[in-house]
Amino acid sequence: MTLTATPTETEVKLSAATPADHDTIRALLNTCGLTTQSLNFDAPGTFWVARQDGRPVGCIGLEHGQGASLLRSTCVLPEARGLGVGRALVRSALTLATLRGDHGVYLFSNDAPDYWTRLGFSEVPSATLADVLPDAPQVLSGVTRGWIHEERAWHLELAPRPEQPEHLEEHEPQ
């Protein structure tokens, strides 16, 4: 899926990451000062890359759990901030989580509480996040390395997945 946003004269495109994007995601995260230690592209999850005029300017990941997902690795290069790139990345991840039927999305963030609050997230104990998503690579990393209780955790309750009109529902062959 590719989404296009044109907040200025330049075009920003979001696309689901492919294996060819993994090094790009690592480079974006390093440039933004975020850790890459717990990245596991083989775990159940989805990553997106935002490109402005074909150049990578941001990324986001969503680690899938049972009924909830963990939003992670959200970054936008400084020169692309203020263009709506971050909001578009978050919106893509939340849309997928809703379509998956997740009841909520969680994340860790010490540095951007105002941003996540503006997007509707509420702070929760990090232990709550760890209980809901114990197998998420970022949670496993936090537990193993002992940093999980130093992080601020956030949660957004998702609206139930809308029912599809009957003519769009998948039916088993008879």
TrEMBL record:
Keywords: Acyltransferase, Transferase. Residues 12-146 form the N-acetyltransferase domain. One of its GO terms (molecular function) is acyltransferase activity, transferring groups other than amino-acyl groups. PANTHER family: AMINOALKYLPHOSPHONATE N-ACETYLTRANSFERASE-RELATED, AMINOALKYLPHOSPHONATE N-ACETYLTRANSFERASE-RELATED-RELATED. This is GCN5-related N-acetyltransferase. It comes from Deinococcus maricopensis (strain DSM 21211 / LMG 22137 / NRRL B-23946 / LB-34).
